[in-house]
């Protein structure tokens, strides 16, 4: 009978070929059936209700399996569409039986209805019905044509020739047809709806995400109905909310959802919630929360495969911060590890350590059992939270060591040592840990660590991605990274961006333009003693950018007299370094430093530098003397700007004191700083002259 087997001729498995022929036969039979045939089929079971249930169960499962296994090749468009049209009619017939025989309180069959909904959603979401994936010509053909010539082949139970041009017959978008049917079936459930919450949230979400506008408009209101049902039952819709957040993350990451869906979801559900007496406020809060999540997930998906790992990191942090905010610990940890992996790929070991530390902070030093979501990585073998925290701490300390953040490694090591000594009594682990700590202390004293520079970068214009658009960030530079290198790296990421030539913030014309403008400011820290220098360039959240501004007439004899400083203060959302090498600036304010205050600051910085360098030499006499000798000689015999003598000319005159009596205390402070510097230079220079370090 099955004389033609296209799968066998194509070298495919013979069983798959037989399945294709069987489905062709079944499709041909179902295609011949009228409404009364279906009714007669059910009557043949007599009064045995269980037989009808079993038949429908098996049929739903079989249809779902056939849909999922793609019996025919994807490019057999006509055959696939014909099968789907026949299956759709059969599914609708069986749905009618559900409404008539298994809906009332006495005869309701939960599992049967559940199987129906899963079958209907599987049918709607199958690949062969996603019209947007076809060419415009093929899509038009699918929407308007169906194969008339299949009848002659079905009559002989032969698989039709997929390449033969069919005759015309109306088709339509079957996704919309089955979607409207699912909607009606849901509303028919009445008091039984609560039995499907939250289990049906995922399938309904999957259906609403199909990119067909009318289908979305018709089915998104089901979510409000679910909220309403759960609220009437439990006075909240927490289970629904938890489920939709979890499923939405999975669906959007898998490629479903778009900006239009976000807008429709927001508009439709807000309209329904605001009309409800009890859900107006809580419902609106929920809708806004889900919309915020969608914005972050869509950004994340857009750049998920971007070569620019920094953009991927930014979006990952946006998502994990959102999950932290709404206390979704499982999803929060999931994105922490996505971020940690990105950092390891870029050798950002310090940032990887801080990322893992966020996971460790969720755990207790206890024998409390580890929940499944806490151990999302196969590498961790831990039965209790204490064991998992121990393993995480060891890994974090390892990353801090590789990132030369030994102070942080020591702090964690002390906490871990306390556990080994007083709780676990694991002296072998304790001894190994203490040896590591000893090495860390030695590294702090002896290893020279390059001091990172910090850069403020503003991204202005509508051409930038939403997560950085019209925002300012502080970046922590890489080891030995010069300003030119940082700038080149930045412009490589945005080759079409234009670097602004001014340091002033841009106006609305630039912010609303379609282009990309980058404003870059530079901040560099001075070298200082090893132990102190760590805290000068780490755990930093407040940054300053200063630029000189002249007020009044220029004094050619003394530039200090009217040299004001315009200082912009940037405060970041988090301390640097952290889980990123950059953080958004959350507040900006500007202060003006008067010429006298500027002089005091300059003298204080110079005195601190002298003191630090002298202390280094006292602690280690073998250090090279040249840097200190150059510093002292430069102060004694300044080649530029005239040294502190200009301060005396500008601020220590009777005229200045008479015009600025409010500056009396500041002038006295400046005098003290100058006096300290003179005494210090005289003392240190005398000592080093004896050592032959300075010319007499």
TrEMBL record:
One of its GO terms (molecular function) is guanyl-nucleotide exchange factor activity. One of its GO terms (biological process) is cell migration. The keyword Transmembrane does not apply. This is DOCKER domain-containing protein. One of its GO terms (cellular component) is cytoplasm. Belongs to the DOCK family. It comes from Hirundo rustica rustica. Keywords: Guanine-nucleotide releasing factor. Residues 323-696 form the DOCKER domain. The keyword Cell membrane does not apply. Pfam families: DHR-2_Lobe_A, DHR-2_Lobe_B, DHR-2_Lobe_C, TPR_DOCK.
